[in-house]
Amino acid sequence: MHVPDGFFDVPVSVGAGVLAAAGVAASLRGAKRELDDRTAPMAGLVAAFVFAAQMLNFPVAAGTSGHLLGGALAAILVGPYTAVLCVTVVLLVQGFFFADGGLTALGVNITLMAIVTAVVGWAVFRLITRGAPRGRPALVAASFVAALVSVPASALVFTVLFWLGGTAPIELGSVAAAMGGVHLLIGIGEGLITALTVSSVLAVRPDLVYGARGMTKALTLRTAEGEVQVGSAAPEAPSAGIGLRPVLVGGAIVAVLLAGVFSFYASSAPDGLEKVAADKGLSAQEKPHAVEDGPLADYAVKGVENERLSGGLAGVVGVALTVVAGGGVFYVIRRRGRDSDGMTPAGAQ
Question: Would you say the pTM of this structure is higher than 0.85?
Answer without folding.
Answer: yes
